[in-house]
Amino acid sequence: MSTATDDGVKAQPLLSLRGINMTFGGVKALKNVSFEVLPGEVHCLAGENGSGKSTLIKVISGVYRPADGAEIVFDGETISHMTPAMAQSRGIQIIWQDLALFPEMSVAENIAFQTLSGSRPRFVNYAAIRAIAEEALVRLGVTLDVDRPLKDFAIAQRQIVAIARALVGEARIVFMDEPTASLTQSETDHLLAIVRTLSASGVAVVFVSHRLAEVLDISSRITVLRDGALVGVYPVEGMTQSDITELMTGRTFDQNVRARNVSQNPVLLSVGKLSRPGEFEDISFDLRRGETLGVTGLLGSGRTELALTLFGMRRPATGTIVLEGRAMRFASNREAIASGVAYLSEDRLSLGLNQPQSIADNLVMASLNRILGGRLISPEKKRSLVARWIADLGIRIGKQDDAISTLSGGNQQRVAIAKWLATDPKVLILDAPTVGVDVGARAGIFEIVARLAEAGLAIILISDEVPEVYFNADRIIHMEKGRIAGWHDPRATTLKDLEAAVYA
């Protein structure tokens, strides 16, 4: 099958799939899906978590073998069953959402990893590895110390390393699964410029992102999946974010400012002139009972560092933290939790949840003292606590004992939130709570946030996605270079003005 280009010429697809079916344990993950990508095209693969996007990519990359009758054609060659080695040799590169990097290895070793592997042992040429890594980073316009271990870098820098590694090979088609989830706006803009450069050079890029503004900005066509089935393939021209959302979910969402006047609510948390040299300085604010306080700013603004200090993971050099009228000097996060402060990490995969462990174990890990029967854990209390929060937050699971990794990103995030709600907190800090979560699940998470605030929980909502804080916070702090650059009331400003202030 060929597709017309802008000049009306029929272009032969670089990659074409027809009749793709996949079943796992009786559940149909893909139902007769067709998919194609043109040479040099930037193509969006859209759908909610669990729609089949990752399964389709794994079929393309040879990880999964589809049911009989499937057809895979790459550059005119019909392939009965793609293997990972075949995919790699043909220039099919995948950047997975979980990055699949090696924290103990250096940046250079992670980027040039494919050059280190092979069937025969040989001496490692570190000079060549450094040169390969530096060249890849130059293509991205990024400067990193390639000799430092990857574990020394924040998640945003790790994402850049994963992208650089994918560009090292002779890529003909690159699948990017949520590549900008942890990047700032300026880093995202730069990445999109790199994607355009790749496209202009003839490399096809398949872009998977829950940030629909990026999808409209970068893609020429969109393939939409829903519940494992193909909804359709659409040109981007004329599409809106609402159009894509409706295609993905089959329903519409209203986006309205939720901000309320909470000035009469009692102050629960008071922060005065809090500082940590090199991270943040002179931070002061009051957080009221039932308030959602938004904190936004670019990477390096000190948002997460401030959160970790409020949670007892780091100690301030100067300043005060007063909780319910009592001055606090948390020596650890355990003390913070015991005092009623909870923190949802921005890195769900490695810091928020333990992927091999069960749903139940993840949910109760921060509140073990609540499920003791004497000196041992009571199975009945554990099951009861887990069942309560699964029902209250509408978490879709199979069994409590299933591994947390079996859940979609949105349901995993709900478990992570439930884990902290089970500690009965007074203050809940949500650091980028929708990273890697699709548009439908995001709406559900913010419904939970609104409901918790209405019930009296004080919430600090941290995000570099300005619309998230604008539509869901009562007041907004804009942080820049470790200081408060401004205060904003969503009822008295526009989203455009707030974005201009943050992204300027």
From TrEMBL:
Residues 15-252, 257-504 form the ABC transporter domain. Belongs to the ABC transporter superfamily. InterPro entries: AAA+_ATPase, ABC_carbohydrate_import_ATPase, ABC_transporter-like_ATP-bd, ABC_transporter-like_CS, P-loop_NTPase. SMART domains: AAA (SM00382). It comes from the Bacteria. Signal peptide: none annotated. This is ATP-binding component of ABC transporter. GO terms for molecular function: ATP binding; ATP hydrolysis activity. Keywords: ATP-binding, Cell membrane, Membrane, Nucleotide-binding, Repeat, Sugar transport, Translocase, Transport. It comes from Rhizobium johnstonii (strain DSM 114642 / LMG 32736 / 3841) (Rhizobium leguminosarum bv. viciae). The lineage of its organism: Bacteria, Pseudomonadati, Pseudomonadota, Alphaproteobacteria, Hyphomicrobiales. SUPFAM superfamilies: P-loop containing nucleoside triphosphate hydrolases (SSF52540).
